[in-house]
Input
Amino acid sequence: MSPIIKWTPFLEPFEDMEKMFENLMPARTGMTGYMPAVDVYQDKDNVFIETQLAGIDPEKVDISIENDVLTIKGESEKKSEVEDKNYYRKEIRRGSFYRSVPLPSHVVGEKASAEAVNGILKISAPKAPETKPKTIKIKTVKK
Output
């Protein structure tokens, strides 16, 4: 006998697919919550990463760079006076977030900087100087 599945005709087209993938994915230990969207771009000297942190205290966000991989993690708190609401639609994500992004170039993580302006976190990491092969000239000695 097959299980009874509730028919919900008013779901967005991709919500069904998203729910299906959530059920198929194995549980990720230590990585609950959501992944914030990021923009990564670079110029001649730096790699830049931007993400939205609206409503999140920048003091509660941890940023690290290790082996040219940027990791951003933190938590958004929900402060609500009324816990029992009858939601029609609930899309604002709250809770912990985690994002790990491989960077397009080698960077000097110790010299990276970050600033939060109007809900946007902007991280700048200077590119590591490329090691150039050293040419060695042969000295000729005449006897």
In short: Confidence is low (pLDDT under 50) at residues 26-31. The helical segments are 15-24. The CA atoms of residues 65 and 109 lie 5 Å apart.
